[in-house]
Amino acid sequence: MKSLVLTGTKKMEIQDLQKPTPKADEVLVNTKYAGICGTDHALYNGLPGSANAVPPIVLGHENSGIVAAVGSDVKGFKVGDRVTVDPNIYCGKCFYCRTGRPELCDSLSAVGVTRNGGLEEYFTAPSEVVYHLPDEVSLKAGATTEPLSCAVHGVQLLKLTPYQKALVIGDGFMGQLFVQLLGAYGVHQVDLAGIIDDKLQLNKDKFGVTNIYNTTRDKIPSDYDVVIEAVGLPQTQEEAVEATRKGAQVLMFGVGKPDQHFQMNTYEVYQKQLTIQGSFINPRSFEDSIALLASGKVNVEPLISHELGLEQVADVLEGKVAGVSKAVVKID
């Protein structure tokens, strides 16, 4: 079967691998779409993702497809089912799993990170992380369930009420997902800050954003109850803290480099009684994410800018393809 294999840092090649056979508790998925995200950029460049990827490995942790076979112990799935897959597999035995925080699992493994993922024609996953896609959700949209679930987890870590004013910093795919999610969770005003006018205007026209700020020329006011940082740069992390009013919450969602730091006024954190919250992966968020997609409360397809073949993936990860907001790979 045709597979795109990460063979080393900044090295990928298409290989003909043997089609895997599912174990007793596994499902074999015929991949239809696989998303490309910031984690793939990191892994391609030799940096860690949710876990370390050791080449040779097939990336692709945002996937949708059709069930091609099921293991002998699998219940609830049959050949032909449309599915999406939560890549994260928890041990269930460590301190964090046993205290209800599986996302912090000491032995986390992941489809497309520590085991072969969706950038190939077929991959396997434990049935416990496979989810049915309803008819209302296309396979293309279904491949974005994983990034949406990460955003859902971030939102669920916050205390949200309708009166709040929220700001999202970052007009990339994740920032634009947060815009829709905050509205779906009842926040009455959502504003967006970024650097690309077309994206900012799209979210104002189509997804109910009240105010937009191009941070190359506009100053962000400091009167927000909720600020979500979805970029991961020191400058935007500092802007997120500065944009708060008293009693605000800041979600640090954007992924910085492992050795990165940013500065903040610690007296301001004290005086404003700020809550600064990190967010890591997506525990127990797939059901909500699928429901949001099926209901239309989150519409991802207008945010997908590129549909690729396997041959184009390395160019995207190298930054050679301009204007990528969200790219998905169609697996033939």
UniProtKB/TrEMBL annotation:
It comes from the Bacteria. Transmembrane segments: none annotated. The keyword Metal-binding applies. The keyword Metal-binding applies. InterPro entries: ADH-like_C, ADH-like_N, ADH_Zn_CS, ER, GroES-like_sf, NAD(P)-bd_dom_sf, Zn_alcohol_dh. Keywords: Metal-binding, Oxidoreductase, Zinc. Its cofactor is Zn(2+). Residues 8-329 form the Enoyl reductase (ER) domain. GO terms for molecular function: oxidoreductase activity; zinc ion binding. Belongs to the zinc-containing alcohol dehydrogenase family. This is Alcohol dehydrogenase. It comes from Secundilactobacillus pentosiphilus.
